[in-house]
């Protein structure tokens, strides 16, 4: 099973009368398969990006007061091992400054760091925190999400995007005050796009149409 691109062109005589059709058939199976793989990779990436957080911690200046089972499954530590310990040991050394800075300023948006499991292995970790009250004390609630699969999906998507035989461009839509699309801005293009247009990615990135 495959895909064929059929194109037909009319043939006219000297008087303009249609006397036949000229057809060209081209096997586009590989291109269609590559397009489908790219779509599936993008869908998988979006699904993983929207997945729920797995681990929850309630801590007071780093000391873990409470956590859920998801955190144990994610880190390899048992519930008993986690309660009463320093939650910062779940963060890789290179990410500690970032985490401490965000705790101090009460940052509430999601951000990415490197996590550490009980066995010493590291993994990409998304964190989102919020100051709250627990048993009458001011604490911070932290949500952990292991984004290993998301990162893998992102890498697969990027690989497929760059290997596609057709020219592709990623862009963001620019809207007016009413929310109506008025233009778009290039974010990235693949090698095939560069070959087709003669423009390098650095020349078009950030430019509007």
Features of this protein?
209 residues, alpha+beta, 7 helices
Helix content: 25-40%
Number of helices: 7
Counted beta strands: 9
Low-confidence stretches: 48-52
Q: Could you give the order of strands across the largest sheet?
A: 4-3-7-6-5
Task: Sum up the overall morphology in one term.
Answer: elongated
Mean pLDDT: 82
- Report how far the terminal alpha carbons are from each other: 38 Å
For the largest beta-sheet, the strand count, sense and barrel status come to:
5 strands, antiparallel
Counting helices, strands and paired strands, the structural category is alpha+beta
| Element-level helix/strand string | EEHEEHHHEEEHEEHH
Share of residues in strands: 35-45%
Task: State Rg.
Answer: 26 Å
Question: How do you describe this structure in short?
Answer:
The chain has 209 residues and is α+β, with helices and mostly antiparallel strands. 33% of the residues lie in helices and 36% in strands.
How would you describe the overall organization of this protein?
The chain is of the alpha+beta class and about 210 residues long. Helices cover about 35% and strands about 35% of the residues. The chain has seven helices and nine strands; from the N terminus they run ββαββαααβββαββαα. The strands form three sheets. It has a five-stranded antiparallel sheet, with helices on both faces. The two termini are about 40 Å apart. Mean pLDDT is about 80; it is low at about 50.
